[in-house]
Amino acid sequence: MVRLPYTTALTTLFSYGLLFAFGQLRDFFRKFVDWFKAKNIKGYAPICLGLEDFYVRRLYLRIQDCFGRPIASAPDSWFDVVERTSNDNNKTLQCTSNTTRCLNLGSYNYLGFAAADEYCTPRVIESLKKYSASTCSVRVDGGTTKLHAELEELAARFVGKPAAILFGMGYVTNSAIIPCLIGKGGLIISDSLNHNSIVNGARGSGATVRVFQHNSPAHLEEVLREQIAGGQPRTHRPWKKIIVIVEGIYSMEGELCKLPEIIAVCKKYKAYTYLDEAHSIGAVGQSGRGVCELLGVDPADVDIMMGTFTKSFGSCGGYIAASKEIIQHLKQSCPAHLYATSMSPPAVQQVISAIKVILGEDGSNRGAQKLARIRENSNFFRSELKKMGFEVLGDNDSPVMPIMLYNPAKIPAFSRECLRQKVAVVTVAFPATPLLLARARICISASHTREDLMKALDVISRVGDLVGIKYFPAEPPKIAEADHDKLE
Amino acid sequence: MDMALPVVNATAAVFARVSAAFNAPLARAVVFGVHIDGHLVVEGLLIAVIVFQLSRKSYKPPKKPLTEKEIDELCDEWEPEPLCPPIKEGARIDTPMLESAAGPHTIVDGKEVVNFASANYLGLIGNEKIIDSCIGSLEKYGVGSCGPRGFYGTIDVHLDCESKIANFLGTPDSILYSYGISTIFSVIPAFCKKGDIIVADEGVHWAVQNGLHLSRSTVVYFKHNDMASLASTLEKLTRGNKRAEKIRRYIVVESIYQNSGQIAPLDEIVRLKEKYRFRVILEESHSFGVLGKSGRGLAEHYGVPIEKIDIITAGMGNALATDGGFCSGSVRVVDHQRLSSSGYVFSASLPPYLASAAVSAVNYLEENPSVLANLRSNIALLHKKLSDTPGLEISSHVLSPIVFLKLNKSTGSPTTDLDLLETIADKVLKEDSVFIVTSKKSNLDRCKLPLGIRLFVSAGHTESDISRLSSSLKRVSASVLSDY
């Protein structure tokens, strides 16, 4: 967890307070100016009333150029960022035709499949010529091709479950599956930092939702005991079923989930477990099989395993792997399977080829090399950043590392200065993170070479000094290897 | 009688003594000039007892929280339901497997069939130009975009696609989503919040229903495609409401309803919307690229200026033969979604090759508007040939590319209806190699429209394909429905 020092908290709150005050002042003057201008549509309520979009108008728009930067090449380890200009103080941005070649520390490209790959791309192009870009129909009508069936089998085998089902988008996978599994009269207990798709799915299902403290099996046990003993709210009837939803790697913290303890608690209280491995499948584990392999959990102990193909496999879409009966039930009732256009066949082929490379079934050991490289890269980068004195979150072996910024002024400073020095980073602020805990998030890829990482470290260290985010004392550079391991 | 008399005598004596005590003045007890009679003593005692009772604490059974042991017992006793219900006997679980592209002719389970199950309205599956542009994209950008739009997932082809669609439709701006059905269920919650009023058609499909549910607004449904019902609903909702300035009001309709093939009368809807001051959200997945002289959708078809429709959404998985979706409208509408639409902000962006496929598809449509005439003549021909099918009737609009056939006479239960229709579809596929499908319904879907056979007509179908379908359908339905 993040330990926020008092002085930093005070200065951050002061900064936000100042921004808020200025924003209110400008809104006040804007009201006067608008009084004289004619209102354009009479009788219709405005799309956003009053303070609903205050944050967007007064805080976000000032630093809009740090977000949504367009690129003009594949999101590989080096890419071309399009330069944008603004004539009205960042309210609108126009793209120019100039691009800058930058080091990519922001895309989810954990195993380096983002750009054209020597094994995958020829097969993808072949499948495009055979099946065309889309099937134009839903899975149950005319949208199931041999590729879809092959991928479902392969994904199930890769993850270690009996069967799997495919969807064209990771977000829809969560939002449309959870209502099929649980309804009114059921209880969903989800981690406090779960992704928006899980929150939407839980809300759409109609079940009661309770939250447990992030990654705390003790609090989960407390919540479970209280809820089972108390029953449904007001009627106190026993719950129909309980599902506990956790993620493998939390994308804003870079932490791994405490999976063995949580599974033990769920088994004791007969709750079902749902594991969302969007960021961890393919990126962690000895052979890339995700958090279960890394932490030594048997996949049969987790009832439902969900994952996406966007991050480590360089494609799009999501899957659910579970027992045969659950998958049959989902195939008959899940709305995303019955109403949504099936996944595009070239994207399916990309995932099949990527999994074959990872498993080594393409006849080479590129998969094992990639997995080893991403592990090495993440551990090296994280330890170096910590040595420099940055506050870095996350566990070892996780390729996601957030660097804490806290102060709202440091967000654009860090982002723009890094871009000027040709390193593209991602900065995240409210509402994706709590208000005081703004951060820069680095995603390491297997395609980064050692030189790339050294350059990144150099730039980040210089910018960190300029901006003032080295919250911890830096370790002196002449430190022996043995001591360095002890301090990890 | 003997025993009774002494008892009676004794009781009478007691009564006499008590009444004497009551009524006898106590000579010595004169307090403040008031004679203390016997009954005053009794009343005084009564008051004392009442005061005593009132002053005591009322009995509340003590609140004992459950002990750890009791919680343990409850947890041990509790049995959850199984995660999924058992599979029903005889449920159909196998789907037909395609072994080639889903064009007008395709290979299903090893056999060459005529395909009426893919919404390939303009016949763009297999189009050379589109495939070439996809190949160029794949070689340049790879397959996935590896990030959400806010974090380096915006690729220049996305921006090109957005401006192309906005130019084509004639709207100021548009925004791309990465999946067809996520478009509508992200757009509705972005604009409609708790306390707003939404009037929706009761025949909208599941994605719209999900969006309405997630928005937490008050939703009122009107009868499917019935303008009188819509007018009366709007009248009822606006009559009592004086706080009109703060509440946002929306009408949600589809242009061509997936569940019935009806077309919404847009001119009437726009007239009503302007009268009662509602905004319109129009879902155009099946009419974009199909209706209108040049394929610009329902607004062109009815001659309504495009500015009058506030929000247009569509999935690109139908006429444009690609994937993903878009939403189009004024600059304010589109900009608002870039930060508050969950399917846009929290999800990876559309793969770049699909965006370039969309651009090529729109280019093709602009250059070859004759493909729309082909589609229209195919639909008309199909209507003509299927008008005398025994047992089935066409219930969709004459211009809709989704031709909806439902049973003339329902058997009474939806499951037997569905069984009959699926038997017809299976036989048509097995005996005559024509691939048709029934409409599917999830148990989470609350639309109550009847199920039927859905035929998706494409501009790539030939006359012989349509003749084959109609003769096969007539033969099979005659044999299957002869008993009903």
UniProtKB/TrEMBL annotation, chain A:
GO terms for cellular component: endoplasmic reticulum membrane; serine palmitoyltransferase complex. One of its GO terms (molecular function) is serine C-palmitoyltransferase activity. Residues 101-460 form the Aminotransferase class I/classII large domain. Its EC number is 2.3.1.50. Its cofactor is pyridoxal 5'-phosphate. SUPFAM superfamilies: PLP-dependent transferases. It holds the Pfam family Aminotran_1_2. Keywords: Acyltransferase, Endoplasmic reticulum, Lipid metabolism, Pyridoxal phosphate, Sphingolipid metabolism, Transferase. One of its GO terms (biological process) is sphingosine biosynthetic process. This is serine C-palmitoyltransferase. The lineage of its organism: Eukaryota, Viridiplantae, Streptophyta, Embryophyta, Tracheophyta.
TrEMBL record, chain B:
This is serine C-palmitoyltransferase. GO terms for molecular function: pyridoxal phosphate binding; serine C-palmitoyltransferase activity. Heterodimer with LCB2. Component of the serine palmitoyltransferase (SPT) complex, composed of LCB1 and LCB2. It catalyses: L-serine + hexadecanoyl-CoA + H(+) = 3-oxosphinganine + CO2 + CoA. It is a single-pass membrane protein. It comes from Miscanthus lutarioriparius. Pathway: Lipid metabolism; sphingolipid metabolism; Sphingolipid metabolism. Residues 112-470 form the Aminotransferase class I/classII large domain. Its EC number is 2.3.1.50. Pfam families: Aminotran_1_2 (PF00155). It is found in: Endoplasmic reticulum membrane. It comes from the Eukaryota. Serine palmitoyltransferase (SPT). The heterodimer formed with LCB2 constitutes the catalytic core. One of its GO terms (biological process) is sphingosine biosynthetic process. Keywords: Acyltransferase, Endoplasmic reticulum, Lipid metabolism, Pyridoxal phosphate, Sphingolipid metabolism, Transferase. Its cofactor is pyridoxal 5'-phosphate.
